[in-house]
Amino acid sequence: MGSDFTQLGGWFGVDETQRGFAAQFPPLSMAAPHLYGSTSTEPILLYKAWADVLGDYPPYKAQEIGDCVSHGAGHAVDLLQCVEIALGEQSAYRETSTEFIYATSREVAGILGRQDGSYGAAAVKAMQQVGICSREMLGADGAYSGSRAKAWGLRGAPREYKDAAAAFKLGGAAKVSTWADLVAAMTNGYTVTIASNQGFELQRDNQGFCRPRGSWAHQMFLAGLRFDREGALICQSWGPTNPSGPLHEGQPSFSFWVDRPVIERILRQGDSWALSKAPEFVSRPLPAHWSYDAAA
Question: Among 266, 264, 246, 265, which Cα is nearest to 256's?
Fold first, then answer.
């Protein structure tokens, strides 16, 4: 599909509906002021939790319609699961159904219909209010399906899956608006979704970074931080071969680093969220090998 991926945005931006949902969540600085104050200069590589728990990075299929909001949210929940398991939680990993998040986010926002898209804040609200459905719950045909996302985005998710998902709700969420917020969240093992109209080149430089270019109405999520060349790692939803170019710090092939000023510009748009399995965000140390490339 190549550059056609840039046409599969699906983020509706910041409008009255988005602001209404965003107002229901606290800023991270109010929800968890105890997380702030880290002066570490070591990278924070949360994506290593995937390899620790799963043995490798997940082989996500590329999104097929404008359901990026659900991919950003669902994959952030997947990594959060792996972080929790790696830190000692006794539970089994279950890949999240992005189609379910897509449908329920549109339901809570009152935007079911033919036009693709949703809001980051609505996805967070749906995960807290309705619940989270795994692909396992969908049965043998539970792999990602753009046609399922389209159908459920039109009519809503089936009741049977809502009933099953009700036992698995997102515990906590808080707004991330600044670099300090981002450092506070990720230093303590919390993944962060990002939604904006910032576009990028699809070629990584020799440090794994992509330069900003153009405009996409798109949601993705963050899985790492660097302080040598300050920036954050964005994980996208276009399959394992995009962008192209060199990888750095053992990053997944479906990711790219972005310089801090660009990340700050994204966060200022107002639809980026730190996610927590529990209702409260707690301080916790991360494994030492999440701060360097063990293969280097």
Answer: 246
110: region left, alpha or beta (phi > 0 left; psi from -120 to 50 alpha) = left
The pTM of this model reads 0.96
Please check whether residue 98 is in contact with residue 74, taking contact to mean a CB–CB distance below 8 angstroms: yes
Tokens of 35: 């997380």
DSSP 8-state code for residue 241? T
pLDDT tens-digit profile of 2-55? 446 667 779 999 999 999 999 999 999 999 999 999 787 899 999 999 999 999
Q: How far apart are CA 251 and CA 191, in angstroms?
A: 15
Determine the Cα–Cα distance for residues 146 and 268; give it in Å rounded to an integer: 30
Q: Give the DSSP per-residue string, 132-195.
A: --BTGGG-TT-S--HHHHHHHHHH---HHHHHHHTTS---EEEE--SHHHHHHHHHTT--EEEE
Residue 36: is it exposed, middle or buried by C-beta count within 10 angstroms (0-12/13-18/19+)? middle
Query: Rounded to whole angstroms, how far apart are CA atoms 84 and 223?
Result: 14
Read off the DSSP letter of residue 11. B
Strand-strand pairing, 273-276 and 172-175:
antiparallel
- How far is residue 196's CA from residue 271's CA, in Å, rounded to a whole number? 7
Contact between 118 and 12 under an 8 Å Cβ cutoff? The reply is yes
